[in-house]
Design a protein that fits this description.
It is built from 15 helices and 22 strands. It is α+β, with helices and mostly antiparallel strands. The strands form 4 sheets. It has a 7-stranded mixed beta sheet, covered by helices on one side. The longest helix has 13 residues. The chain is globular, with a radius of gyration of 23 Å.
Length: 522
């Protein structure tokens, strides 16, 4: 059997559909996307019939079945249950087109006057001198961001105008330059020449690059859509992190072949006011994992264009975040990237696009692995934070080859590379397991590698705490997130790891000194 055929079979086998997170609305949309609207309606029988999201998906099923009158009824019920009209405006627009032509919809537009700004603003790609702002608009429009310092009435920086278009799903990113390090700013979003109201439009630039600083960074994964736990985003915001790292399973799509499902999952999260308040003021960096790239535990193979859905999923991911870069760009798609906050270097990995079991198993693929090694060798970070969508520690998911246990040779290659080149200051972070825990990997030939894992931001499902030899502590009682508080101004720089519950209570903390992340001298 040829290698290309074998690659396709491996991709299909390991990308089998597993319905996760007990999300009947998302599962119903998957059926709608596949043209199975009666199955969608049966799926919705498992949902709360009074919920606005249930009515919204019932509307989608009616539109797919060309039952416009029924769709209007469900749309009205969704609005009455609290759905913002902007959700209907956002779409998915091709499916909602028959609704847009009804007298009822035109009446809702006149009565409710939805904002031209449907989603965002989301701040990202912040540096010590610049920032980027992602938005999605109701129609094609010119976007501009104006940044202000203190109480000054005139902006200190203005972005070049950018345009949203249908071809880009009406999303665009405006860039602002010429800012000062470690400075608080406020900003305004202008759409089609008019200022648009938005909550929490303030942010802080990063400390000067390579300079010591004090700051905190939040991270996590496992953000299934559960409305009663969307308060998590306000809880994170209350801790005032300078950045938020979303490490995978950020939205649960599990349907790489249908754009409809992906758009639905992104739109409902981006419409939540709690999410919008957080990302309007906190620089966001994101990588994907299996549930927002392919399906459960998927191994798509090493080829760029095989399976055929890879590039479109990557483009949809890129269209909904605001990272400084995305792998190697169009020629070498991926989500890996790196950035500095002060003298702390963050290196985020793509664990899915090139994941393969052909020949020598690899999670990263040759191009990304070469990039990782060069990035580590060149790093000037006091701390180097190596972020993976799946855990590094042995037996953290017993019997499963999905974490780094399935790629033991590559894991050892990376760890040995740190020791061979005397690269100090590295610790590991990860997501995937639905809890927050801290572990340490003993390295006889080098220094111990600490791993901080967190992936139950808003999920229903919980994973038990696995007692590996290096377990320091773990928390899985409620939804939680991870926080890293850095102080690199000290003679011995430190980072404090904290696990915080959804109510903001700190459950555990652990201080790690920079002096612990170097090979002991003989």
């Amino acid at each position: 059997m040829g290698r290309r055929v074998m690659g396709l079979l491996v991709g299909l086998f390991f990308c089998g559909v597993v319905v996760g997170q007990h999300d009947p609305q998302r599962n119903a949309v998957r059926h709608i996307a596949a043209g199975k609207w009666e199955q969608a309606r049966r799926e919705l029988a498992n949902a709360n019939s009074q919920d606005s999201e249930t009515h919204f998906v019932q509307m989608l099923a009616s539109l797919a079945a060309e039952e416009t009158e029924s769709a209007v009824t469900h749309a009205q019920a969704a609005l009455d249950a609290g759905l913002p009209l902007e959700r209907l405006v956002a779409g998915p627009r091709q499916l909602l087109r028959p609704l847009y032509g009804t007298a009822a919809y035109q009446g809702w537009l006149r009565q409710r006057q939805p904002s031209p700004l449907l989603h965002g603003p989301m701040v990202g790609s912040v540096t010590s001198e610049s920032a980027a702002f992602w938005v999605r608009t109701a129609s094609s429009a010119a976007i501009q961001v104006r940044v202000f310092a203190g109480r000054f009435a005139s902006p200190v920086a203005v972005s070049e105008p950018v345009s949203t278009r249908a071809a880009g799903d009406f999303a665009a990113i405006a860039h602002v330059h010429g800012l000062r390090p470690a400075t608080d700013y406020r900003y305004e979003v202008w759409v089609a020449g008019k200022r648009v109201a938005a909550e929490n439009t303030r942010f802080q630039t990063f400390p000067a690059r390579h300079a010591g600083a004090r700051f905190s960074v939040a991270f996590g994964g496992g953000a299934g859509f559960v409305p009663k736990w969307e308060s998590m985003w306000d809880t994170i915001g209350a801790t005032s992190p300078i950045a938020l790292l979303m490490l995978g399973d950020n939205v649960y799509i599990d349907d790489p072949t249908h754009a409809l499902t992906g758009r639905y999952c992104y739109y409902r999260r981006q419409s939540r006011p709690e999410w919008r308040r957080l990302v309007a003021s906190t620089s966001v960096f994101a990588i994907y994992d299996d549930h927002d790239f392919g399906t459960n535990d998927c191994i798509p193979g090493p080829q760029i264009e095989k399976p055929a859905w890879k590039r479109s999923v990557w483009e949809r991911f890129r269209r909904n975040w605001v990272n400084p870069s995305y792998g190697g760009g169009d020629g070498q798609p991926g989500c890996w990237h790196d950035f500095y906050i002060g003298d702390v270097h963050f290196i985020l990995l793509d664990g899915r696009y090139y994941r393969s079991r052909q020949d020598v198993p690899s999670m990263l693929g040759a191009v990304q692995k070469a990039w990782l090694k060069e990035t580590l060798k060149a790093s000037r970070g006091t701390f180097k934070v190596l972020a993976s969508p799946v855990p590094w520690t042995e037996n953290i998911k017993p019997g499963s080859p999905d974490p780094w246990d399935g790629f033991t040779a590559e894991r050892e290659e990376i760890f040995s590379f740190l020791e061979e080149h005397a690269i100090e200051g590295v610790f590991l972070i990860a997501a995937d397991r639905h809890r927050t825990d801290l572990r340490v990997n003993r390295r006889p030939a080098g220094y111990d590698l600490y791993e901080f894992e967190s992936s139950r931001l808003t999920n229903r499902h919980t994973h038990a705490i696995v007692k590996t030899p290096g377990l320091i502590w773990g928390y899985n009682k409620t939804c939680s997130f991870a926080q890293m508080q850095f102080d690199t101004t000290r003679s011995d720089p430190q980072v404090t790891f904290s696990a915080l519950a959804i109510d903001g209570q700190e459950m555990y903390n652990h201080r790690l000194l920079r002096s612990q992340l170097q090979r002991p001298s003989n």
